[in-house]
Design a protein that fits this description.
The protein is of the alpha+beta class and 579 residues long. The protein has 21 helices and 20 strands. The relative contact order is 0.10.
Length: 579
């Protein structure tokens, strides 16, 4: 059966999202190794309680989707999940563990409330079920997936090897929910790893390899578990609906000698965590960046920059779709490069490619003070005559925007602007830099550069209005804008205005029903990053829904079921396709 366990676990997680019973949630984090680079935790109990409290159960979802062809299979899958022995009220963890390319893997970890039922479920579902036993756990080997399913009395663990390079390059591993599976994919390449000594594999046989790792996970010592890491432990204490944990160290360590030793040392003790909670009318994510000892010293030196809200206030529009203001001291990058010992190589490369033998990395970083701003407004999507075929029409998208960045040290700035390569694009005229003649082509953005500010806009009138300072940004949530003051970053995007600017006649007929559902969902989103406190830096992202009095989780589930219903109806209406 194709991707059997993936389907089982996906069904279990889906069921957990809508189950109405309440039970104790055991902590399965002790089975997550320190070499996990990414961990997603799903707090099933908390999510289901929120849904049930707001009147949504699995039976209601099935009743929305059901018809004579799908009702029985859907209900059967639900009942199978209920009777699988998996604890649908326990936390589920999806982890990517980086050992090296050959021995990195994805593991799915969940709780069991009845190991006997789970064994019976696998026996009924797997066509080649063959139960094998270790001292204190049992397992089934899925040869077609090169994966092992192991379980003891309280926990089930699924392990499948992956190519770590594909994961870091954005690939999704096969054999897990949402991932494709290539029977011929090659996971054989490997590099030396600083953490490979933690993996006790002596056989190249896939079954022996992953059964050994399952044995390892079931018997992790405290100091081998991610739960022993403060960032991971604190994240779980937040008891969020969804939690995300990122540890870059094992990711880089899996590259072995490809990563400088100094960089590995610099990243020691650095983590990122995100706690996501669904609330009435909004979704809130609290992010925390943890810096290790060496990185903390650099942050303390440069991490006090504040975003300049004045750059936003002079934006010439009352119809802003989104903006970001950011204060970041570029000299921090220089200290990080120097800490890794790569500054010499960086300077050689800068001189070689810039054509300026006196230019250094410090010059470039000192030339800008790190105060940056971007905003976009006045979106207009319309039909217009084609310039190629007059009798035809094309879709035109008009958008006003401005990017601005403050200049830092003037001497360093002049040094950077004298780079021969830049002379092709800009030339000095009086006390300002303007586009060179060859760069003045139709469609090029408007540019203004002097020793105080670099500004770029979609056209000259917008740029002139921004630099003139005669206008003032309007239509903003001033209570949010005021919160940016004193913080290094603030950002905003208005989904309501963006969707309203797209006329219905510009949406394909086949997508109008779904587009209508999506347009009615989101209002806007805000993000703020707070200053570094000596050990951590906190950020908050809030996704606001149009319906402020309805729970966001219910709105998302309703959207999913409505879209699924629309897709079902479209499939039935399309008689040209055989399903």
């Amino acid at each position: 059966m194709t991707k059997m366990f993936s389907k089982v676990l996906l069904t279990a997680v889906t069921a957990a999202v809508i189950l109405s019973a309440c039970s104790k949630v055991p902590d399965q984090s002790k089975y997550i190794p320190k070499t996990a680079g990414v961990v997603l935790s799903i707090n099933s109990k908390q999510i289901t309680n929120k849904l049930v409290t707001n009147g949504l159960t699995m039976e209601k979802v099935i009743s929305i989707l059901q018809d004579k062809d799908t009702a029985n299979p859907a209900m059967k899958a639900w009942k199978d999940a209920e009777n699988s022995g998996v604890d649908l009220q326990n936390n589920f963890f999806v982890s990517v563990v980086f050992n090296n390319n050959q021995q990195s893997y994805v593991t799915l970890t969940g709780g069991l409330k009845d190991a006997g039922k789970f064994e019976a479920y696998l026996k009924k579902t797997l066509p080649n079920f063959s139960l094998k036993k270790k001292t204190d756990f049992q397992y089934v080997w899925e040869a077609d997936q090169d994966a092992v399913i192991g379980w003891n009395k309280e926990t089930v663990i699924y392990i499948r090897g992956v190519d770590a390079n594909k994961l870091k390059n954005g690939g999704i591993p096969g054999g897990i929910p949402g991932g494709g599976f290539d029977e011929n994919e090659d996971d054989s390449s490997a590099v030396d790893s600083a953490v490979a000594t933690q993996v006790r594999y002596e056989s190249t046989d896939a079954e022996a390899t992953w059964v050994a790792e399952a044995d390892h996970l079931f018997h992790l010592k405290k100091d081998e578990s991610a739960a022993d890491i403060t960032a991971f432990h604190d994240l779980l204490k937040n008891n969020a609906d969804l939690s995300v944990y990122v540890n870059p160290e094992p990711m880089y360590a899996s590259q072995g000698s490809a990563i400088p030793a100094n960089l590995k040392k610099l990243l020691e003790g650095s983590y990122y965590t995100g706690a996501i909670n669904f609330e009435k009318g909004k979704v809130v994510m609290d992010g925390v960046s943890y810096a290790g000892k060496d990185l903390s010293e650099i942050y303390k030196k440069y991490g006090k920059s504040e975003a300049d809200v004045k750059l936003l206030e002079q934006y010439p529009s009352d119809n802003i779709l989104g903006f970001m203001v950011y204060g970041f001291d570029f000299r921090m990058i220089g200290d990080i490069v120097k800490a890794t010992g790569l500054d010499g190589m960086a300077n050689i490369s800068i001189r070689m490619y810039s054509g300026n033998q006196n230019l250094t990395l410090d010059d470039i970083l000192n030339a800008f003070n790190g105060q940056m701003f971007f905003a976009a407004s006045d979106l207009n999507v319309r039909k217009a005559p084609s310039t190629i075929v007059p009798e035809d029409s094309v879709t035109r998208t008009d958008l006003k925007w401005v990017f601005a960045m403050k200049v830092g040290d003037k001497a360093a700035f002049e040094k950077v602007m004298s780079i021969p390569a830049l002379q092709t694009f800009v030339t000095k005229k009086g006390d300002k830099y303007v586009l060179a003649e060859m760069a003045q082509q139709p469609g090029m953005p408007a540019v203004s550069i002097d020793d105080k500010l670099i500004a770029v806009a979609n056209d000259q009138p917008t740029l002139d209005a921004y630099l003139g300072g005669r206008s003032k940004a309007g239509g903003l949530d001033n209570s949010f804008v005021s919160k940016i003051n004193g913080n290094p970053m603030g950002a905003y995007i208005n989904f309501e205005k963006i969707s309203a600017a797209i006329p219905d006649n510009q949406i394909p007929e086949s997508g109008k029903a779904i587009a209508s559902q999506v347009k009615d969902l989101l209002k806007d989103a805000t993000a703020i990053t707070h200053p570094f406190d000596g050990k951590t830096q906190h950020s908050e992202v809030v996704l606001n829904f149009k319906k402020q009095d309805e729970h966001s989780l219910v709105q998302l589930v309703n959207l999913g079921t409505n879209v699924a219903k629309i897709v079902q109806e479209e499939k039935k209406a399309d008689t040209s396709v055989v399903y």
